[in-house]
Amino acid sequence: MAIKGFGGATLFSAQPNKTAKLLEKVMGLEFIRKEGDFIRFRSSADIGNVIDLKATPTGRGQMGVGTVHHIAWRAIDDNDQLEWQKYVAANGYGVTPVQDRNYFNAIYFKEHGEILFEIATDPPGFAHDESQETMGEQLMLLVQYEQYREQLERRLVPIKVRELD
Predict the structure, then answer these.
(1) Distance CA 34, CA 16 (A)
(2) Is residue 1 part of a domain?
(3) Which of 64, 65, 97, 147 is the most interior residue, by most CB within 10 Å?
């Protein structure tokens, strides 16, 4: 009755061999098999654990409707994320400083196949500035977007939060 997560993702890389190496050797995914023009990897997560990589190089994606900007990976907490930051950098990737995204912290790096990876923390979570009981009743904006609140609220289509049986 509700979306709990994605089954996985399909990656299109400019350098699939290098992306495959990163997925297996750095990110720790398990190679499952190559089938046709796709290579399948699996992570240890319960959901969202299947990554398919197109085996032939593709051009760089264009921003627009239907385009995914990046793929996010999960860090348990800030310490786990800092370990990932050091580990990714030690493996030759330029990784950003920690970015405070209000509901989570994030680091980013572009892998050699031109795919932007994010490693985001679970905490502080979405309930840190509103209660679980009232979540979804009002539009929550990051500080830098508060100045646009009136403009944004005028453009948004109203929604009604429903209770599921």
Answers:
(1) 12
(2) no
(3) 147
Could you give the CA distance from residue 69 to residue 154 in angstroms, rounded to a whole number?
26
Residue 30 lies in a domain: yes
The strand order across the sheet containing 50-54 reads 8-11, 50-54, 38-42, 30-35
Is the Cα torsion angle 108, 111, 113, 114 positive or negative in sign?
Answer: positive
Q: What is the DSSP letter of 12?
A: -
- Cis status of the peptide bond prior to 124, with omega within 30 of 0: yes
163 in a structural domain: no
Q: What is the pLDDT of residues 58-103, one digit of tens each?
A: 977 777 777 778 999 999 999 999 999 999 999 999 999 999 998 9
Tell me whether residue 13 is in a domain: yes
Residues 6+ apart with CB under 8 A from 28: 43, 44
Contacts of 77 (CB under 8 A, 6+ apart): 121, 122, 123
